[in-house]
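Input record (one chain):
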Amino acid sequence: MAHTPRQRLDTSVPHPARVWDYWLGGTENFAPDREVGDQITAVCPELPIIARAERQFIGRTVTLLAGELGVDQFLDIGTGIPTEGNTHLVAQKVNPAARVVYVDNDPLVLVHARALLDSTPQGATDYIDADLRNPDPILQAASDTLDFARPIGLMLVGVLDFVVDDTLAIDAVNALVAGLAPGSYLAIASSTPSEAMNKAADVWHAGGGAPIVLRSPERLARFFQGLELLDPGVVTLPEWRPDAATDYIGQQVCQYGGVGRKP
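The corresponding structure, as predicted from the sequence alone:
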């Protein structure tokens, strides 16, 4: 059952999960989200491509972890509004007994948590209303569903952008990884700077959205310190282990990612 949220739904300012939903063709968004979403794509037309490339990255990563690498537990922080290809749908397709805990601090996501909790009978899902910047409550609550004595796949896809201070972000990630068993994996996808992406960030901030940061691939690589980085390293998302269904191969998408293993 989803944990009780703080009531702070505000539809008068754009929210990243709702703008992302708009770019993915969803319906859980409001006029301010669509307005700033259109303003951003006017200066950075690739943003909807980034949204789709990120979704495909989740699919390839979770398929690899749940299949070949044998991970049957996932902690997905910053999940956003439920849509096609969420972590539990991918993981439980590979292994119906997979267990998934989602974490987000957007009350609109909680409204749709029922979709996130639609588990297979063999597996389990849970939703926690919490913030990446405060990892201890996440670990504590997630332990109701996940066994932290066994490997877990930690998914941080599109969420580190909103922790603008590098030290705070790295400390939070390190605290989460420290709570995982050896053989666990960390998957990260995050926005990187370019002329168009810098303009997009300016539009986002001008619209009153939560502050974001664009990190270079080199800055993103710091989050994997102490982990065994899987090939091909931290790369633009379409180049991370593409398969036959991967779009935008050969295109420089300003969303980079990678996966590391805890030794």
